TrEMBL record:
Residues 1-146 form the RPW8 domain. Gene3D superfamilies: Helical domain of apoptotic protease-activating factors (1.10.8.430), P-loop containing nucleotide triphosphate hydrolases (3.40.50.300), Ribonuclease Inhibitor (3.80.10.10), Winged helix-like DNA-binding domain superfamily/Winged helix DNA-binding domain (1.10.10.10). Pfam families: NB-ARC, RPW8. GO terms for molecular function: ADP binding. InterPro entries: Apaf_helical, LRR_dom_sf, NB-ARC, P-loop_NTPase, Powdery_mildew-R_dom, WH-like_DNA-bd_sf. This is RPW8 domain-containing protein. GO terms for biological process: defense response. Belongs to the disease resistance NB-LRR family. The keyword Repeat applies. It comes from the Eukaryota. Keywords: Plant defense, Repeat.
Length: 827
């Protein structure tokens, strides 16, 4: 038994000895591993200490890590000095090395990871604070324009017959998580209408609140412009993005700031090939939804919803609504005729609306003709089929004026897709092209007819009274993109480029039409070389016979113009996006030109150059400039109307006194020009001037004392000039003044003492909050032969009611305001 115990003891001793030897053999590799770990950690610890000091963060965890590293270093130094003769001590020190290394690894993997998470969260909180400061101060948020209810979406539309798709969309949008939903269907199927409507759906509004953004993308999207739109919609000053990448980075900053709450982004009218653009808006933020509307589905985004044609019941209901048919209609002899026309529309909401509008109040014969036209086209499978149906409605437009209304409709194709068309621009064009009234009354009648036929929509961005004073600066026309395409198609007709009455040209970057540079003489040379060759060997450019020339350029256009010889053009429409833009060389030879309309559709003003090329155009009557920096104006002796909207005017009136440059102006309008602090020198010497509108120019603080020189002035508008403190007494000498609008002049404290000397018919005083009393002279309005119409607030109305004027009409308007005008106002 003793031998057995002794043998076991020897066996255990042997195992211990073998274990000790193994540990001794592993000692060196363990030591080397520790040395490598410490060598890697040393510089990192030093950096961590430096950054910790810079950030002024708590140092407890860093100090603990530094202590562990220091102790490990001390043990490694001691172990490194052990010689072979101390091999029996190796296992002891190896255990210590492993213990120290284990403690270090545990601290790095657990304590430091947790601390890093805490630090990261703190950084995110601090970053959010920084972003808020940047957005409020650096980006320049405008406190007067807080988040709109639905940013960028027009007013809530009618959405008849779409209850089922609305419910399905609502279910998808109310789900949690991040997703892209594509709403697809034929053109005119109601995609945009449905997308706008869902933004107003109560449950959707409750969930997303003010984080609902609606942006129209269109056929040729520009990422920077779309991001600029989002910044503007949020009420922030729009940054100037250097690149698309810069725009995407700032977009992420913006969305993460807004991401405290669910976000709904609607990208409307996305065309094929724009998938990569949509991808750039996909940012991993909790509860962030992107709703895309497109004529095609995008399988890569997963969820897609096909918008089907309307069924017979809903189609007939929609048709009857827009045709204004009652159940007991006296001018529709049989229901079968309605049914056949509805069937011919093939369930297309756009076709139903437009054709219904064209038949409203028409005779039986017109209805029958429409039915026969529609029966010739049996299918509706493409935009071309739909365009054919829409064209039928135009064939029955009546000729109420000297020009067929179809001509007016075709003029709407001169402006870019998905952009608002200023009614004031249409009035300028139509007055000169078709001899309509200069006050715009005939033009508005045409616009009303086109609206009734559902060919266009009209929005009024600011309305405080009735339109009887013929002021339409706040009126805009919207055209569905399919109807715009129809207008362009009709303009082209069967005629060649040289024979068309309207010529519309789109120029992108260095790309030019073949006729622009002439045919390639070698026939096989590449397009880019052909362009260069054309620069040196210009062939004769085609002579353009059009009365109307519209040229649209993108932001990369380099202002290289060809000599296209548009000798017959009476209207030139320039639609631009670039930061620098030179008027075409050929404008110098456009001697029949009557109207020039220059509009920048970007967010930041474009520098307009070579304005002097207009100096030789003796027939030029009207100029409208929007969102450009105007160079010094040239002498235009015969110009009758100058309209400046959202422009930089600092240099405009430097070279000449405006009375020398434009002595025959009859109307002048300056709107939303924040740099305008005084009226142009010499303005009061333009005696033919009848209408002067200086509106929304918040820097204008005073009027010239010699205002009475404008002896023919009939209309003076100064509304929303918030810094205007008083008006000169010489106003009383404006004997022909019939309309005075000083509404929303917030700093105005009193009216001119002798205002009662005027023969006013209309006086706008709404929003003059500092105007607390009326001068005694207002009682002299009693001597007027006509009624005076005062538009004012309720408080001001009580003052007028105390006057002795019998022929007095007081109107307290209900202010109707939407903020669709916001994009670009502050750029």
């Amino acid at each position: 038994m003793a031998d057995l115990v002794s043998g076991a003891a020897v066996g255990e001793a042997l195992k211990l000895a073998i274990s000790t030897i193994k540990k001794g053999l592993d000692f060196e590799s363990t030591l080397e591993s520790n040395i490598e770990t410490l060598n890697s950690l040393n510089p990192l610890v030093e950096k961590m200490k430096t950054y910790n000091t810079m950030l002024d963060s708590p140092s407890k965890e860093i100090e603990k890590l530094e202590s562990l590293v220091r102790n490990s270093q001390e043990l490694v130094r001691k172990c490194s000095k052990l010689g072979r003769w101390k091999m029996l001590s190796f296992p002891h020190y190896q255990s210590k090395l492993r213990s120290k290394d284990g403690a270090l690894q545990t601290h790095l993997s657990m304590n430091m990871t947790a601390q890093n998470t805490v630090n990261l969260l703190k950084v995110m909180v601090d970053m959010r604070k920084v972003l808020e400061i940047l957005l409020k101060e650096g980006f320049g948020r405008y406190p007067e324009y807080q988040f709109m209810d639905i940013c960028g979406a027009p007013q809530e539309p009618e959405c008849l017959g779409m209850d089922v798709p609305l419910r399905k969309l609502r279910i998808e949008l109310l789900k949690g998580g991040v997703s892209v939903l594509v709403l697809t269907g034929l053109g005119g199927s109601g995609k945009s209408t449905l997308a706008k409507k869902i933004c107003w759906y109560p449950q959707v509004k409750d969930k997303f609140g003010k984080n609902i953004f609606f942006v129209t993308v269109s056929k040729t999207p520009d990422l920077k412009t779309i991001v600029e739109t989002l910044f503007e919609h949020c009420g922030f000053k729009v940054p100037k993005f250097q690149t698309d990448e810069d725009a995407v980075n700032r977009l992420e900053v913006l969305l993460r700031l807004l991401g405290q709450h669910p976000i709904l982004l609607v990208l409307d009218d996305v065309w094929p090939g724009s998938e990569d653009l949509v991808e750039k808006f996909k940012i991993q933020i909790p509860d962030y939804k992107i709703l895309v509307t497109s004529r095609v589905s995008f399988p890569r985004f997963g969820t897609s919803y096909q918008l089907d044609k309307l069924d017979d019941v809903h189609a007939e209901s929609l048709f009857r609504h827009f045709a204004q048919l009652k159940d007991k209609s006296s001018y529709i002899p049989e229901k079968n005729l309605v049914d056949e026309i509805v069937k011919g529309c093939k369930g297309s909401p756009l076709a139903l609306k437009v054709i219904a509008g064209s038949l409203c109040n028409k005779s039986f014969e017109v209805w029958r003709d429409m039915m026969e036209h529609l029966q010739k086209q049996s299918i509706l499978e493409s935009d071309t089929d739909l365009r054919f149906r829409l064209q039928q409605s135009l064939d029955i437009l009546e000729t109420k004026f000297s020009v067929n209304e179809k001509e007016f409709f075709m003029d709407l194709g001169l402006f870019p897709e998905d952009q608002r068309i200023p009614v004031a621009a249409l009035i300028d064009m139509w007055a000169e092209l078709y001899n309509l009234n200069e006050d715009g009354s005939n033009a508005m009648s045409i616009i009303h007819d086109l609206t009734t036929r559902n060919l266009i929509n009209v929005i009024v961005t600011r309305k405080v009274a009735k339109d009887t004073d013929m002021y339409y600066n706040n009126h805009f026309v919207l055209v569905h993109d399919l109807l715009r395409e129809l207008a362009i198609h009709l303009s082209k007709g069967e005629k060649t480029f040289e024979q068309r009455e309207r010529v519309m040209i789109e120029l992108k970057g260095d790309n030019r039409p073949e006729w622009w540079v002439g045919l390639n003489p070698l026939g096989i040379i590449g397009r880019s070389f052909s362009y260069i060759l054309g620069m040196f060997h210009r062939q004769k450019q085609p002579k353009v016979a059009a009365r109307i020339l519209s040229i649209s350029t993108d932001e990369t256009f380099n202002s290289d113009w060809c000599d296209m010889q548009p000798d017959e053009a009476e209207v030139l429409v320039l639609n631009l996006l670039s930061s620098q833009y030179s008027l075409p060389e050929f404008t110098e030879k456009m001697h029949k030109l009557k109207v020039l309309i220059v509009t920048n559709y970007g967010f930041h003003r474009s520098e307009l150059n070579m304005f002097e090329r207009l100096g030789s155009l003796t027939n030029l009557k009207r100029i409208r400039l929007e969102k450009v920096s105007i160079p010094p104006l040239c002498i235009l002796k015969n110009l009758r109307k100058l309209s400046i909207h959202m422009c930089n005017t600092r240099q405009a009136f430097e070279r000449y006194s405006i009375s020398d440059a434009m002595p025959n102006l009859v109307e002048m309008s300056i709107d939303y020009c924040k740099d305008l602090i005084k009226l142009p020198d010499g303005l009061c010497n333009i005696t033919p001037l009848k209408k002067l509108s200086i509106t929304n120019c918040h820097g204008l603080s005073a009027l010239p004392q010699d205002l009475a020189k404008l002896e023919n002035l009939e209309v003076l508008r100064l509304c929303s000039c918030s810094d205007l403190a008083d008006m000169p007494d010489s106003v009383k000498e404006l004997n022909k003044l019939s309309c005075l609008d000083i509404s929303d002049c917030l700093s105005l404290t009193k009216l001119p003492d002798d205002i009662g000397e005027l023969k006013l018919q209309k006086l706008y005083l709404k929003g003059c909050s500092k105007l607390r009393e009326l001068p005694d002279s207002v009682d002299k309005f009693e001597n007027l032969e006509h009624e005076i119409h005062v538009i004012c607030d309720e408080e001001m109305a009580s003052l007028w009611k105390n006057s002795t004027i019998r022929k007095l009409k007081i109107e307290i308007p209900t202010v109707e305001v939407n903020l669709n005008w916001l994009p670009g106002v502050h750029s």
